[in-house]
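Entry 14. Two folds queued back to back today. First construct below, sequence then structure tokens.
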Amino acid sequence: MPNTQNSILNRSLVRVFIYAIVFFLIQFFSSQYEGPTWLETVGIIMFFLGITMYTIGLNNLSIQTAFFESSKTLVTTGIYSIVRHPLYTAVAITYLGAGIWNQSIAGILTTLFILIPVLFYFAREEEKDLITRFGEDYINYKKKTLF
């Protein structure tokens, strides 16, 4: 693999590692609230919905398209026909669901006020690159999809 491809793959792996560390620290070392059972059920559903969405998003991409700058393919099918950033969206849903499921105030607040803004930042930076690479095709794609 060329250095550029290794660099992109390494950045992606670092992001996943950071997500995992933050998740475990927040969920296991935070105060909890006593919520209703139905809310816990909503959290469980969100958690597994997020994991499912992430898996579907990865399946809609090839490793080449997902991580390498040299990709010439704009993926607009499958879940990408609805959401431009299903992996970021899935991470947010999973973390928020985990916070609700575990009844973790810190988990919910950190997801809402730190993780989601960081994911928006990542998405905006990624979109600058995608506009440069795909031009008008990406701009038109943005108009047809959600975040």
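Second construct, same run, same settings:
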Amino acid sequence: MHLATVVTILLLHGGGFVGGTTQEVKPFADDLRDAGYHVVVVDYLADNPNGNVLGEIGTVKRAADAARADGPVVAYGLSAGATLAADLAARGEVDGAVVAGGPTDLLTWFCLSPLTSAGYWAGLGMTPTDRRAASPQFLLDGHPSPQLLMYGDIDPLVQINQGLDYYDAARKQQPDTQFVLMPVAPHTFRQPYPTEAKQWIEARWPAGDLRPTTLKDRIRIPRVSGAAHPAARHAKRSAKAKKRATRRR
């Protein structure tokens, strides 16, 4: 019997690459699990406590590679986690991505909390070359995955041009790239937001999409070595008895 195709959602929390916890995305995980999805909340900081973005990309990619053996994988990131989701989607390393308020160009991204100063990047062990290598804007390789980009119109932490510039570049390579402006949204969150992201995922990768099966796949009659199956012997005896009864009449 064939198993159902598993659609895995990799949930990636925010926190400026060096903070945040997996508990922040628990409500999203619970909602998606209730909808039938296999959800993996990736603790990318466990392997990269200093917040090196290149290391975090590697951690998320390993989780994606492991899950893709079972079916489609969608990376769903918030803030810094959205950058990691876009990093994989830019090179087609996941089947799709939800990018909610993530910086996409780490060379131009300016933030007050955390303050993205030279000291901040030095603490993450990131040179300008590393920042470019970790920026989705510069990772687009001609084969990006479908992406939903969601940015707040009054976000003080991630400027809207971080989403719009990446959208313009990604849309040229992948027509299924969508940009949603979240009105009156300070940073990645507002009430309808989880619903919009889930609907976008469900429209492309429905949960519980079964692979075709046949009656033969579902029902198997065991064979008995050296003799006919008991059910077959019983049927044969029944046929002979009916034949003898007909002759007697």
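Quick look at the second one. The chain is about 40% helix and 15% strand. Residues 209-235 have pLDDT under 50 and may be disordered.
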